[in-house]
Structures are given as C-alpha cells and as structure tokens.
Design a protein that fits this description.
The chain is α/β, with parallel strands linked by helices and 255 residues long. It has 9 helices and 10 strands. Helices cover 38% and strands 24% of the residues.
C-alpha cells in the first residue's frame, strides 16, 4: 500500500503549552485509521494542523509526497485533502440541494458559478442527487442549509465532502450529536468509502465499538504525543493506552 498522507515531527505550541508534540505518522491508501485518546490529548488539534486550520510551529504535512505545510486550508482541500467540517454550510442561505450542486460543480472544474445553467449539466445534477440520496437528505433538499437540524447538518458535511472526491477523508467525530437512528447512515457511508480501497480515511472517534468495527489501525495520542500505533485489538489492550485513559479519568480532563 502506498503512503498518501504523512506528518513529520508535526508540532504546535500555544505559549508555553505544546499541544501536539513532534508527531510523525504515515497513512496509507485503502486504509481507515482512527485517532483516539483522552480529552485534551491533541486529536482535534492534530487534525487542524493536517487540514491547515492551524499553522504548525514545526514539522511538515505531505500529501502524495508534496509538502503542504505552507498552504492554508482551502488549497489543501484542492490538492485532495478533505475535512468534513471545513465545508459545513458552504452557503447557508442556499438550499441543501444547491450546496451539493455547487460542490459537484467545483469538483468538475467549472468553479462556483452561481449563474451557471444547471439544466444543461444533466450528469452533474444526477451526481448531486445521488449524493443526497446516499446521505438520506434527498427529502430535505429544498430546505435552506441553515434550517437543518444538527444531525442533518453533519450529513450535509459528509455530502459536500463526497462531492469534492478528496483522496483523503478526515472525519472528526462524525456522529457527534446525532440521534441513534441517524448514526447508521453516516457509519454506512464511511464503510462504503472504505470498501472502495482507493481512499485514505482518518477518523477521530470516542465510541470504542465504532473504533473496533471500522478501523484497520488505531493511533493513540496522549498529551500531544503519539504513544501507540497498531492493530485495534492490540492497541486497545496495551498497558500504555489503559494508563493514558485511566490516568486522564483519575486526574481530570484537560482543555
């Protein structure tokens, strides 16, 4: 399997606090890696560094060997690095359908032209509807994006990400805030993306049943450092991981 995404000694400091501490990790095409750790471990901050929401103090982010470290979030997305929340409510005053149409249009190379005559782009319209059906939003396609309930907004995030067809999918707790009947829709979408075997998937998730079911590999962060990396069963059974979680529970979580 080829390496699609890599971080090399990636670090960020906020004043005297090191939030992510020299994390080096390579992610392979066709695999799903879940990043876990206690609250305050640096998981979301690590995602922010990869996606370009934060600028690293040190280290590099490479996609297919290209150094993205100097790029902001938008150009990283154009290179093929996709993170769901970056795309939430692309246009909150437009309908759900129009949001997905514009994302499909952008991926097609036509740009975000609001005045494009959609009726002349049958294939793009069909693709937008397919994505809406896949995330169970076809019935709400006429609603404005801002009118969606939280769970449906998370589905829209995934729909927009799917429309852009990135090489790397990054999901930060994709089922957070969803009702029990909504969760299977998102998990099934992630399973289908994984089954394609041509994408790299990174997942931050707290639900251990989801971690065990979906993951090919688990990476554990604690106090901003990578402390474990391997097969789910082995990693979750390790003394290092147990100590990280139990220690955090005993000492209280960090912001």
């Amino acid at each position: 399997m080829s390496v699609s995404l890599e971080t090399r000694a990636l670090s960020v400091r906020f004043g005297g606090h090191v939030a992510v501490d020299a994390v080096s990790c390579a992610f392979h095409t066709g695999t799903l890696t879940t990043i876990v750790g206690p609250n305050g471990a640096g998981k979301t901050t690590y995602f922010n560094l990869i996606s370009g929401q934060l600028r690293a103090s040190e280290g590099k982010v490479l996609l297919h060997g290209e150094d993205l470290s100097g790029l902001a979030a938008a150009p990283r997305t154009r290179r093929g690095l996709g993170r769901a929340f970056q795309l939430t409510n692309l246009f909150p005053e437009l309908s759900v359908e129009e949001n997905v149409r514009l994302a499909v249009q952008a991926h097609s190379g036509m740009g975000l032209n609001l005045w494009s005559v959609w009726s002349s782009h049958t294939a793009l319209l069909r693709r937008a509807l397919e994505i809406l059906e896949a995330v169970a939003l076809a019935g709400k396609r006429r609603l404005l994006a801002r009118e969606l309930a939280h769970g449906d907004q998370r589905k829209l995030e995934v729909a927009l990400l799917m429309a852009l067809e990135p090489d790397v999918f990054m999901f930060d707790e994709p089922t957070a805030g969803m009702s029990a009947d909504e969760v299977p829709v998102i998990l099934d979408l992630i399973r289908r993306l994984k089954a394609r075997a041509d994408k790299t998937i990174l997942l931050v998730e707290h639900k251990m049943d989801v971690v065990r079911e979906l993951s090919d590999r688990v990476v554990v962060l604690h106090n901003g450092r990578l402390v474990a990396d391997g097969a789910p069963a082995a990693v979750m059974a390790s003394d290092t991981v147990r100590e990280a979680y139990l220690g955090a529970a005993a000492g209280g979580s960090r912001a």
